[in-house]
Amino acid sequence: MAVKIRLARGGSKKRPHYAIVAADTRMPRDGRFLEKLGTYNPLLPKDSEDRIKMDVERVQHWLAQGAQPTDRIARFLEAAGVRDKAERKNMKKAEPGDKAKKRAEEKAAKAAAPAEEAAE
């Protein structure tokens, strides 16, 4: 049985509240879980102590049993000092694609050509 430590959503519409749970990977996100390990309330300020609450001993127990944390839970564990910081890929989403770069170069070349003629 593959176990993941993940978030299970609760709360009403536009008011999310999450439970940190150890669950079988085959179960639905908000479905059956093995154990509740803590809570996460994203509506609270980032510096609030009540934003993330988790039973670190039980989390370490599940990690020792082979449970894999999801990316968000791994970040929580890194912040708590339970896990070492993992190297993440910089996806460069803000960088334009190849075609956009070529268009920008052509536009810059066209703008520079009349400027050079005027300078002569």
How many E strands?
5
Low-confidence stretches: none
Q: End-to-end distance, in Å?
A: 76 Å
Instruction: Give the helix tally.
Output: 3
Relative helix content:
25-40%
Whole-number average pLDDT? Answer: 88
How many whole angstroms does the radius of gyration measure? 24 Å
Structural class: alpha+beta
CATH level-two architecture of the domain at 3-80: 2-Layer Sandwich
CATH class descriptor of the domain at 3-80:
Alpha Beta
In short:
The chain is of the alpha+beta class and 120 residues long. The protein contains 3 helices and 5 strands. The protein has a 5-stranded mixed sheet.
Index terms:
120 residues, alpha+beta, S16 Ribosomal Protein, Chain: A, 5-stranded mixed beta sheet, 3 helices, 5 strands
Written overview of the protein:
The protein is an alpha+beta fold and 120 residues long. The chain has a domain at 3-80: 2-Layer Sandwich (S16 Ribosomal Protein, Chain: A), CATH 3.30.1320. 34% of the residues lie in helices and 22% in strands. The protein contains 3 helices and 5 strands. The protein has helices at residues 56-64, 71-80, 98-119, and strands at 3-10, 17-24, 35-40, 52-54, 68-69. It has a 5-stranded mixed beta sheet. Strand 1 and strand 2 form a beta hairpin. The longest helix is centred in the last third of the chain and has 22 residues, at 98-119. It is elongated. The mean pLDDT is 88.
Task: Give the arrangement of secondary structure elements.
Elements: E1 3-10, E2 17-24, E3 35-40, E4 52-54, H1 56-64, E5 68-69, H2 71-80, H3 98-119
Parallel strand pairs: 1-5
Antiparallel strand pairs: 1-2, 2-3, 3-4
